[in-house]
Write a structure and sequence with these properties.
With about 375 residues, this protein is an alpha/beta fold. The protein is built from 18 helices and 13 strands. It has a 7-stranded parallel beta sheet, sandwiched between helices. Strand 4, helix 5 and strand 5 form a beta-alpha-beta unit.
Length: about 375
């Protein structure tokens, strides 16, 4: 029996972990997985020592409020794995929690793997020193990460991005519109003002104002807004009633992928949605606002080390998705950028070609590649 320790602490990690568990089970039939797992990982055959939700804490204030419990849970996991000594321990994302656990386990001679590299290339690059001490193998989902990490002495393997495997290369716009009840021939703009309350409070207003300006220029326009939670829907509906109750908009619960696929272009907050929009081959404008003090601090200390905030632009190496950050996140700037997409099909076709090329580069059967890399690490340990 080969014991594998694995810890995930949020739904996205549960998805990644479940795919990895399934692929490793194909390669190692007598494997047993134990750690912290959500419902998908448990369905794939992973035993959980306690509920994943106990680790699912977001935001500085929330983390501080639960710090003692989180540290206690991490210590409990460390004691368990030191007592049972898995062939390998895998931390799935959640670097602030998992890297500390990985470092302690590695110091005791247990092989450690981390799936999804922290964004040291963009934010707090000093973290790479801690990563080097914590992992025997970093599995990266973007091609430029492997080279950067290896330059800093971190063993890294590029496995591709799971979303690129999940989303088909060709997307049926008409089918997505039919599922959402959108007209087949009207121009449609998708608005994605974020998946967190703070983002919604800062971005709903300028996004709605932008839609209103666009509608004035193109009265035939329709809009679709996917909303992840009921609380976000309440916030958006209140802002919509205050600013543009007449806006021809469809609000949908979740289903962001359908909303993006149905659109001619997208206005999105910075984040994972920019990668999803790229993979669905839709032209986009990217906007973001943070607290003014935080923005001033980030700029003053030079904490951000990349030329773009949108992953689409980072992967392309140039601006395919115009970015509107902080004071530039205004309707009078955002609306013309979206209308230009609607009025320039040749430009859109070029963007879609570039996005298609990037999609193919990221599409590598990530879970299978990750499982193979982990198996090699286990076999090397056995041969040593």
């Amino acid at each position: 029996m080969v014991l594998v320790g694995i810890v995930a602490n949020e739904p996205s990690g549960d998805l990644l972990g479940a795919a990895l568990v399934r692929e490793l089970r194909e390669l190692i039939p007598d494997v047993r997985f134990v750690g912290v797992a959500g419902p998908r990982m448990q369905e794939a055959g992973c035993e959980t020592l306690f509920a994943m939700e106990r680790l699912s804490v977001m935001g500085l204030t929330e983390v501080l409020g639960h710090l003692r419990e989180l540290l206690g849970l991490r210590a409990e996991l460390r004691r368990y794995f030191l007592a049972h000594r898995p062939a390998v321990f895998i931390g799935v994302d959640a670097p602030d929690f998992n890297l500390g656990l990985e470092r302690r386990l590695r110091e005791s001679g247990i092989k450690t793997v981390h799936l999804v590299s922290p964004t040291v290339w963009a934010w707090r690059p000093g973290r790479v020193k801690g990563i080097r001490r914590a992992v025997d193998l970093m599995l990266s989902v973007f091609p430029f990460e492997e080279t950067l990490l290896r330059q800093h002495g971190v063993p890294a393997t590029y496995v591709g991005h799971p979303l690129a495997d999940e989303i088909p290369l060709e997307v049926d716009r008409d089918a997505a519109r039919a599922r959402l009840g959108l007209p087949p021939n009207a121009p449609v703009i998708a608005l994605l003002p974020g998946s967190r309350v703070g983002e919604m409070k800062r971005l709903a207003g300028p996004f709605i104002d932008t839609a209103r300006v666009c509608l004035t220029a193109r009265p035939e326009l329709r809009f679709v807004v996917p909303l992840v939670t009921a609380s976000l829907r309440v916030l958006f509906e209140a802002e919509l009633a205050r600013r543009a109750p007449e806006l021809p908009v469809i609000l949908v619960d979740g289903r962001s992928r359908d909303a993006i696929a149905a659109a001619d272009c997208v206005l999105t907050a910075s984040g994972t949605a920019t990668l999803e929009t790229l993979l669905l081959k839709r032209p986009m404008a990217v906007a973001y606002r943070i607290h003014p003090f935080t923005y001033h601090l980030v700029k003053r200390l030079g904490l951000v080390k990349v030329p773009y905030i949108a992953m689409a632009n980072l992967l392309a190496g140039r601006v395919l998705a115009p970015e509107f950050i902080q004071d530039r996140c205004r309707a009078e700037l955002l609306a013309p950028a979206l209308l230009e997409f609607l009025d320039d099909p040749e430009r859109v076709a070029g963007i879609q070609n570039d996005y298609g090329r990037i999609h193919r580069e990221l599409r590598r059967e990530a879970a299978r590649e990750a499982a193979r890399a982990i198996l090699r690490l286990i076999e090397q340990q056995g041969a040593a």
